[in-house]
Backbone:
DNA sequence: AGCGTTACTTAGTATTATTACC
DNA sequence: GGTAATAATACTAAGTAACGCT
């Protein structure tokens, strides 16, 4: 539930603000600086508008026909190749950052006032960068030294600081606002609807317009259709029969398999007949092979990979027939601190039993983090600590009642020392430790699924810790307790040995449900949420579901035009529920918003589309909407977008009296209602599919700008640019690294050093041939950022380096001479050299003033011009790199690469442009997407 | 219908490994 | 060869959406 009162505004301040233009036509984009044309989907490297359509066929022509993002108007900016975009200078697209830093995750709402910035945040403030959509950052201090062609600062968004709350003293019930029923609307549009859920008068009375009449299935109903669950159950595992052949197995596993009557495994499979046959086959094969396999066991690896993607469709709810694994690995028991390490209370050292000492240590280890400054964190921690102390009090018979009197510093210092010690260990020691650890983990690394060896993801029981919720989580700081076997339920093959926990105790339960993919499961005590042990991302289970996710997104291509047409019409529906649904869908499609399920009271207050509140959306006539809210992980979504005028009008209605701050915008909409509707448009369609679809589609369009004849590096840069556009679309952010500023400045100096060299070359050229000043007027201008101060400093640095080098060289020479039994050079030789250096730099200083540089020996006009040209190229390259670095500093590319971009796009692109795949996918990603490599050739299209 | 539960995907950050740099 | 910068991986929180009970 959400509270009516929340301090939203205050909370919002720190995220970067993107301006995202929604309008389809470029021409609409009048405020280039602040608002852009709508195109979440595609902004080109040159941003905007290249709205291109998704296509279901590989035919390029048809590609053009489906515009993902396109709006209602028929003509939208879709273009097959965004020629127009390309014409745009990059700089224009570069986001302008309005201002400097903002923290990424909103820290503390309560503190939210203007001075927020001063507070220590958990994270460093991030500097916004602009991307395709420009992000406007709340203004704070710094003026970003952004490299790129600087864009003019965008005008501050008015709502940026604080979302306007327009409610005036309307009489509101304390709970959610309700809106008048449709029938009360004077004109259909003018009033807000009633609250979703019960209280509002249902729209029954209202005249139903055509779309409304559409029977919408509830999701339950729809589930009856083949797709949903039933289907899965009916179908048996087709593709599975061949698996048994899989390969070498580990001996232990084999034995267990042999012992286990596999045939029994089946119980609940409603799949009955089929699956049991399949199962028998498996068993048979296993038996047949077991003999020879055993012999091969030693070499263990190299089993050939199970190519599930070559096995035909796999549907179903039966996920396995045999499943063998070793359960979870518990962390080692707590080791008490040395006797001399004690926390203090009120100045006095106290001795804690291990149980409470461990908890104290969790907090002690965080002493240098911002958590210890957080009131909620402290309160939750201290409550749990006190509870622990009740049972395990200090030996001194002291009652601990105040956190402020606790001094954990001695513990902290101990941990620091331990860390140092560890760091100081020799390579061998470290290796030995690692080996011991690997050995311990070895049995847990793999499971045997239908006879195949499959890697596990997380096989470790989560160690105890203080819960670190993200954003303003009410439970942060709470003790997450140590797990025991009694907390854990295993899911494992029916007639297979039950593993023994690596610490004393017995499993809470053991089940044999072959319709699910988890191997172990427990309830975590902080939020009472389930945690699971699953197979790794590289496993066939994950691979199959990943692939079907992308296939579903590709299927959407076929339906999206119709869906867009429908929701565009429904934007004007007389039925408010439909109108809200259409409006929400518009946002989900164009802005890649998440669905926005309802959340509980004891969670951080974050939002998605369906749960947006009054204060999250601000209207700015004529058709601009400003979003400002915290999404998943409390990441701020702050964008300004030009929208279809009807959308603008709708939001105005949805926000009209009597709604006020704290009320839902879409009071008649729920995620399940929305998804039920989507399911009628396309089987299996849900809100999240739009994110996948738009991300992959955008990526595909963006890749079209790859330079065919560029270097590999240039091509990769184009790839990364495309990746970045997708990340921006999805609002994937990361904290700006704490050294960013420093390393960025360093890069800037490098560029200037290059410019300095170029300057010297220019002066030589002009000194050699004064006429060139006219002829090459382009070279006559001086470097804009090459001031005396820099040059002086730079020359000084060069000089110091030269001196160092000379000294080293001298020593080296002498060492060598001595080694060869010859006489070392006298120090005077060195002095002489140093003198020369000194003279040289003196000359440089003089040149700096006179701007005349004596040409080097053998210099000619041609040679100098060539050198200058080379230097320019180096400068340009360095600048591009800098710009890129700046633009990417707070954008996380990995998330979209892992979850949203169809890997076949990458594979196809790599093949088409002849770029080694390993430059694009890390080892784990390649292991995750073997199916993509198998099926995508250079011409593959999404 | 409403709401808690279950299963699984998506997400940012902390930690560790690798590479770049001196 | 040691250290700093960067990339990869590990970790676990936080979403989505279906399920299932009343």
Residues:
């Amino acid at each position: 539930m959400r509270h009516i009162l929340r301090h939203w505004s205050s909370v919002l301040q720190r995220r970067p603000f993107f301006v995202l233009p929604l309008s389809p036509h470029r021409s609409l984009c009048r405020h280039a600086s602040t608002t852009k044309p709508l195109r979440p989907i595609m902004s080109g490297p040159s941003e905007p508008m290249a709205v291109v359509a998704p296509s279901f066929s590989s035919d390029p022509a048809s590609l053009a026909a489906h515009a993902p993002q396109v709006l209602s108007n028929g003509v939208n900016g879709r273009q097959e190749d965004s020629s127009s975009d390309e014409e745009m200078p990059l700089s224009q697209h570069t986001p302008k950052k309005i201002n400097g830093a903002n923290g990424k995750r909103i820290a503390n709402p309560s503190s939210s006032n203007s001075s927020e910035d001063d507070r220590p945040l958990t994270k460093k403030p991030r500097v916004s960068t602009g991307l395709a959509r420009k992000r406007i950052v709340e203004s704070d201090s710094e003026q970003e030294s952004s490299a790129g062609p600087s864009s003019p600062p965008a005008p501050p968004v008015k709502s940026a600081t604080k979302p306007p709350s327009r409610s005036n003293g309307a009489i509101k019930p304390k709970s959610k606002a309700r809106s008048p029923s449709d029938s009360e609307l004077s004109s259909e549009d003018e009033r807000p609807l009633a609250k979703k859920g019960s209280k509002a008068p249902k729209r029954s009375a209202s005249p139903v317009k055509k779309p409304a009449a559409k029977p919408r299935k509830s999701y339950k109903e729809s589930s009856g259709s083949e797709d949903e669950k039933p289907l899965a159950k009916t179908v048996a595992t087709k593709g599975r029969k061949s698996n048994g052949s899989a390969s070498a197995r580990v001996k232990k596993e084999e034995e267990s398999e042999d012992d286990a009557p596999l045939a029994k495994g089946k119980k609940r499979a409603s799949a009955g007949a089929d699956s049991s046959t399949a199962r028998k086959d498996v068993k048979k094969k296993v038996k047949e092979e077991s003999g020879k396999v055993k012999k091969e066991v030693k070499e263990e690896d190299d089993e050939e990979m199970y190519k599930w993607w070559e096995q035909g469709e796999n549907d179903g709810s039966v996920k396995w027939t045999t499943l063998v694994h070793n359960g979870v690995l518990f962390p080692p028991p707590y080791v008490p601190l040395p006797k001399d390490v004690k926390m203090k209370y009120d100045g006095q050292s106290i001795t804690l039993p291990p149980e409470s000492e461990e908890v104290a240590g969790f907090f002690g280890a965080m002493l240098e983090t911002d958590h210890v400054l957080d009131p909620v964190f402290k309160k939750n921690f201290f409550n749990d600590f006190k509870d622990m102390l009740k049972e395990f009090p200090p030996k001194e018979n002291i009652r601990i009642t105040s956190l402020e009197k606790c001094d954990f510093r001695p513990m902290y210092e101990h941990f620091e020392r331990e860390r140092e010690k560890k760091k100081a260990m020799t390579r061998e020691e470290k290796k030995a430790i690692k080996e011991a650890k690997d050995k311990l983990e070895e049995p847990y690394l793999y499971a045997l699924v239908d006879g195949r060896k499959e890697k596990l993801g997380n096989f470790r029981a989560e160690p105890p810790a203080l819960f670190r919720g993200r954003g303003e989580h009410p439970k942060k700081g709470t003790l997450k307790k140590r797990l025991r076997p009694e907390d854990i339920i295993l899911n494992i093959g029916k007639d297979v040995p039950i593993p023994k926990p690596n610490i004393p105790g017995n499993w809470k339960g053991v089940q044999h449900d072959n319709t699910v993919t988890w191997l172990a499961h427990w309830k975590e005590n902080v939020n009472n949420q389930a945690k699971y042990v699953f197979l790794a991302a590289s496993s066939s289970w994950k691979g199959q579901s990943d692939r079907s996710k992308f296939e579903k997104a590709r299927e959407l291509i076929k339906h999206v035009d119709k869906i867009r047409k429908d929701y565009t019409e429904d934007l004007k529906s007389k039925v408010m529920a439909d109108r809200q649904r259409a409006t929400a869908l518009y946002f989900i499609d164009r802005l890649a918003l998440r669905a926005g399920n309802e959340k509980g009271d004891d969670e951080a207050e974050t939002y998605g589309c369906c749960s947006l509140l009054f204060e999250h959306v601000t209207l700015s006539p004529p058709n601009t909407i400003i979003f400002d809210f915290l999404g998943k992980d409390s990441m701020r979504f702050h964008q300004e977008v030009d929208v279809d005028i009807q959308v603008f009008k709708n939001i105005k209605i949805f926000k009209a009296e009597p709604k006020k701050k704290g009320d839902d915008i879409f009071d008649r909409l729920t995620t399940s209602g929305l998804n039920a509707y989507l399911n009628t448009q396309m089987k299996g369609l849900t809100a999240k599919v739009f994110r996948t679809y738009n991300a992959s589609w955008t990526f595909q369009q963006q890749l079209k700008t790859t330079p065919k004849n560029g270097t590999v590096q240039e091509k990769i840069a184009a790839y990364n640019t495309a990746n970045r556009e997708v990340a921006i679309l999805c609002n994937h952010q990361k904290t700006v690294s704490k050294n960013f500023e420093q390393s960025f400045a360093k890069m800037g100096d490098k560029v200037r050093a290059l410019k300095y060299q170029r300057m010297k070359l220019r002066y030589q050229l002009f000194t050699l041939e004064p006429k060139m000043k006219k002829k090459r007027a382009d070279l006559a201008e001086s470097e804009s950022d090459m001031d005396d101060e820099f040059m002086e400093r730079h020359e000084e640095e060069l000089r110091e380096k030269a001196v160092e080098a000379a000294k080293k060289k001298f020593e080296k020479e002498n060492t060598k001479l001595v080694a060869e039994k010859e006489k070392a050079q006298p120090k005077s030789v060195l002095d002489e050299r140093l003198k020369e250096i000194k003279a040289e730099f003196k000359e440089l200083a003089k040149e700096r003033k006179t701007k005349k540089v004596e040409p080097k020996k053998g210099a000619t006009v041609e040679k100098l011009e060539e050198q200058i040209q080379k230097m320019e190229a180096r400068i340009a390259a360095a600048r591009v790199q800098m710009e890129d670095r700046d633009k990417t500093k707070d954008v996380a590319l990995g998330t979209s690469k892992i979850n949203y971009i169809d890997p076949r796009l990458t594979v196809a692109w790599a093949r088409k442009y002849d770029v080694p795949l390993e430059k694009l996918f890390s080892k784990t990603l390649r292991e995750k997407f073997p199916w993509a490599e198998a099926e995508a050739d250079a011409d593959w299209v999404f």
Remarks:
- The radius of gyration of chain A is 33 Å.
- The mean pLDDT of chain A is 74.
- Residues 104-105, 123, 197-198, 218, 468, 470, 516-518, 521, 530, 532, 534, 542, 545-546, 549, 594, 598, 632-633, 635, 688, 732-735, 892, 894-895, 898-900 of chain A lie near DNA strand B (CB under 10 Å from a C1').
- The longest strand of chain A covers residues 624-630.
